[in-house]
């Protein structure tokens, strides 16, 4: 769980940086990674 939260936060920081630079495709990829981590964390908490 700790690794997932670290991965989520790093993806969030990268997404913010990509948005500031205007790199939209990399921004969306970072958002997808954030979404994947969040779904896994939710599944872990639910079980």
User: pLDDT below 50 for ≥5 consecutive residues: which ranges?
Assistant: none
Distance between the termini: 13 Å
Q: What is the helix/strand order?
A: HH
How much strand content do the residues show? Answer: under 5%
Major sheet, described briefly?
none
Proportion of residues in helical segments? over 70%
Q: Mind telling me the C-alpha Rg?
A: 12 Å
Number of domains: 1
Kindly state the mean pLDDT as a whole number? 95
Written overview of the protein:
This protein has two helices and no strands. It has 47 residues and is mainly α. The chain is elongated. The mean pLDDT is 95.
Explain briefly what this protein structure is.
The chain has 47 residues and is mainly alpha-helical. The chain contains 2 helices and no strands. The protein is elongated and about 40 Å long.
Describe the SSE topology.
Blueprint: H1 2-21, H2 24-46
Helix pairs in contact: 1-2
Defining traits:
47 residues; 2 helices
